[in-house]
Design brief:
Layout (H helix, E strand, L loop, with lengths): L23 H17 L5 E4 L2 H8 L14 E4 L6 E4 L3 H8 L8 E3 L14 H15 L7 E3 L4 H9 L4 E3 L1 H8 L4 H24 L6 H15 L3 E9 L20 E10 L2 E2 L2 E7 L4 H20 L6 H7 L11 H4 L4 E4 L6 E5 L16 E9 L6 E11 L2 E4 L9 E3 L3
Parallel strand pairs: 1-5, 3-4, 5-6, 10-16
Antiparallel strand pairs: 1-2, 2-3, 7-8, 8-9, 8-10, 11-12, 11-13, 13-14, 14-15
Helix pairs in contact: 1-6, 7-8, 9-10
Length: 415
């Protein structure tokens, strides 16, 4: 019998000369090899990418915050060639200085109008499409479809007006991103390790009189101190707000005996967490313990079903039906008992649920990483338990990245 591999590492954030950690050059090479593979297997001559996770995957660049979702950055990807990126303003000069993995001429300034703030009549989109069309002709693929992941309608109309046939590139890009390399898995594990520590801080701070938003502030501050590059969201939910699940936070004051759950979504070097934990505040009722026990049983059954080569409908079938926990349909209950892929994006492949997987299953493969979520309302009508584990599918089964205790309901500041 072969020895069990060593656990996935979370060695630290610094580069050092005495341990092998994340090799970013190897990471870039792996990601582009995956894109080349799906592009060559598609009907397209090139991909034009606007999805900022796809842009990061192919160009290894990132602009977040106010500019990350404005549809002004786009990358043109040909098989076996370095991608061309049109970026915002001075970012182009910065790439030329610090992102030396692409030729200087592949970093280009571009601007399409801030999602319509500059009207299409100004001609920015027309000029951009004309430039793209000339590059397609230069590469000898002008007669082949151009794959696009997401797009503004006026830009799509301009492509069509200039005679460019458009195909769907998002499905291909999600296929490329679904199998994570060891470097990607290490980054995902490091991101989870940061949240492990934040949950310890939350457990110590979770006392009567603290507000939900204060927990959000604590988590956000601590994550940035630990090296997060984006705190995307922190759900903070307590007391009567637990059932039904609102997926947000308020200024509610946390009270003795509350059941409270939190979801911490952040990224380290782009790789994300989605990491729920439920805690009792000082004490817990039998109804709260019972709900947690049920949520844990559902979680353990799902994880036990996850193996390489297993079809995702097998996992979905062990999850409870919507009617088992108070919903009229799988659509109404979606997001409470499911799994979603993790990577540069929060919701990648695979998506496993009774809503989609029973009729359209996919095969689970080694290298997939996803977050498995369960939820159980309590018999008191207001409390609920929420658990989430980040799972890596390996050749020998699964590994769990999320380490903060979750086998039993954790009581913070017990009295």
């Amino acid at each position: 019998m072969a020895p069990r591999p060593r656990p996935i590492g979370a060695p630290g954030q610094m580069g050092v000369d005495y341990e092998e950690r994340v090799d970013f050059a190897r990471l870039r090479e792996y990601r582009m090899s995956r894109v080349d593979q799906v592009l060559e297997g598609s009907e397209c001559g090139a991909f034009l990418l606007f999805d900022f996770y796809n842009i990061r995957y192919t160009t290894q660049t990132w602009i977040g915050g106010a500019l990350g979702d404005k549809m002004i950055r786009y990358a043109l990807v040909f098989p076996g060639r370095p991608p061309i990126l049109w970026d915002f303003g001075s970012a182009v000069k910065h790439h030329k200085l610090y992102s030396r993995w692409l030729p200087d001429e592949n970093w280009r300034p571009g601007f399409l109008g801030f999602r319509g703030a500059v009207a299409p009549e100004a001609g920015l989109m027309r000029e951009a499409v004309t430039e793209i069309k000339s590059l397609l002709a230069e590469a000898g693929v002008a007669g082949e479809p151009l794959g696009i992941d997401i797009v503004e309608p006026p830009f799509l109309f301009e492509l069509q007006r200039q005679g460019i046939t458009v195909a769907d590139a998002q499905q291909s890009m999600l296929d490329a991103r679904v199998i994570k390399s060891p470097d990607e898995i290490m980054l995902l594990n490091q991101a989870a390790a940061m949240v492990d520590g934040v949950y310890q801080d939350i457990a110590e701070a979770l006392k009567p009189g603290v507000r939900e938003n204060e927990i959000v502030a604590l988590a956000s501050k601590r994550l940035y101190e630990l090296g997060s590059d984006q705190v995307e969201a922190v759900n903070s939910i307590s007391g009567e707000r637990c059932n039904p699940h609102p997926h947000n936070f308020t200024d509610r004051i946390i009270r003795p005996g509350d059941q409270a759950f939190f979801d911490i979504i952040h990224s380290f070097n782009g790789y994300r967490t989605c990491y729920y934990r439920t805690l009792g505040v000082g004490s817990a009722t039998q109804a709260q313990h019972d709900a947690y026990k049920q949520a844990r049983e559902w979680m353990d059954a799902a994880i036990d079903a996850i193996k390489p080569g297993v079809s995702s409908d097998v996992v979905a079938r062990v999850l409870p039906r919507a009617q088992d926990f108070g919903f009229e349909s799988e659509m109404a209950a979606f997001g409470l008992q499911f799994a979603h892929g993790l990577g540069l994006g929060l919701h990648e492949r695979p998506i496993i649920s009774r809503l989609n997987s029973l009729e359209h299953p996919l095969e689970l493969r080694a290298g997939m990483v996803f977050a498995m979520e369960t939820y159980c309302p309590a018999a008191d009508g207001i409390s609920a338990a929420r658990i989430e584990e980040e799972v890596v599918v390996t050749d020998h089964g699964t590994e769990i990245l999320t380490k903060f205790p979750a086998q039993h309901l954790f009581i913070a500041n017990k009295y």
